[in-house]
């Protein structure tokens, strides 16, 4: 067995959804230092770009190519990883969408789509990998939002899913405590990502990424949760922009 193979065989593992951009990408980059990272996303090309960036970093990466709303794709992506690795140490839910709309303008299809991506798919993937998380006494980390606490005009869709996601993680935490699985909910304020640029465009505001939280700071919050010793469980982390303009 080569040194790299030995390192991979003994390394902790982490599945990160939405890992091809924004917060998910930053989380994958951070965890790759000492985890085998399963890089999750819909695009095989996007996943490969992230894996190429991480080549030579830590114990290695694997591809997890699936649309999280497609249960068959998710199962097909998970099956070979489940065969290779008996346990899963970390599951980070970072995939999500954030359409904005007034309630008066939002048809059923918009509600169904966002709840499918942001809530139902989270629940289904968690259920799928729970046996491996229990085996490893692992961590589930959900990237929520400040919108998981407060809803404003045009944010009923997004906030609705984030309130629901908070309810999901609260319940899961209590259910899985006896199994040794820890559950953390991370609530960022505005983060300098593509999603934030789209939100500013919707609101008709000028976007200055340097005014908002860097994705690496949210990755640091995830790291805090997963590196906590077993006598502690980091349940909720809120990260807000400091308001200290850098321009």
UniProtKB/TrEMBL annotation:
Belongs to the short-chain dehydrogenases/reductases (SDR) family. Keywords: Oxidoreductase. It comes from Kocuria salsicia. It holds the Pfam family adh_short. CDD domains: SDR_c (cd05233). InterPro entries: KR_dom (IPR057326), NAD(P)-bd_dom_sf (IPR036291), Sc_DH/Rdtase_CS (IPR020904), SDR_fam (IPR002347). This is SDR family oxidoreductase. NCBIfam families: PRK08219.1 (NF006073). Residues 12-212 form the Ketoreductase domain. It comes from the Bacteria.
């Amino acid at each position: 067995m080569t040194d790299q193979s030995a390192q991979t065989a003994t390394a902790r593992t982490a599945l990160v959804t939405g890992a091809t951009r924004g917060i998910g990408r930053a989380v994958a980059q951070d965890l790759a230092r000492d985890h085998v990272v399963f890089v999750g996303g819909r695009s095989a090309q996007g996943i490969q770009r992230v894996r190429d960036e991480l080549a030579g970093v830590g114990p290695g990466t694997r591809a997890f190519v699936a649309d999280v709303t497609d249960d068959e794709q998710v199962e097909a992506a998970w099956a070979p990883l489940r065969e290779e690795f008996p346990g899963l140490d970390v599951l980070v839910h970072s995939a999500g969408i954030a359409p904005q709309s007034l309630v008066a303008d939002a048809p059923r299809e918009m509600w169904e789509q966002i709840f499918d991506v942001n809530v139902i798919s989270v629940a289904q993937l968690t259920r799928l990998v729970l046996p491996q998380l229990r085996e490893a006494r692992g961590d589930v980390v959900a990237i929520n939002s400040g919108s998981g606490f407060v809803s404003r005009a045009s944010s009923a869709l997004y906030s609705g899913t984030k309130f629901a996601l908070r309810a999901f993680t609260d319940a899961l935490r209590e259910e899985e405590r006896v199994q040794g699985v820890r559950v953390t909910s991370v609530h960022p304020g505005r983060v300098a990502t593509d999603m934030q640029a789209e939100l500013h465009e919707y609101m008709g505001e000028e976007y200055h990424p340097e005014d908002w939280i860097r994705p690496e700071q949210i990755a640091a919050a995830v790291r805090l949760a997963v590196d906590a010793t077993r006598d502690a469980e980091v349940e909720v982390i809120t990260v807000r922009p400091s308001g200290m303009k850098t321009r």
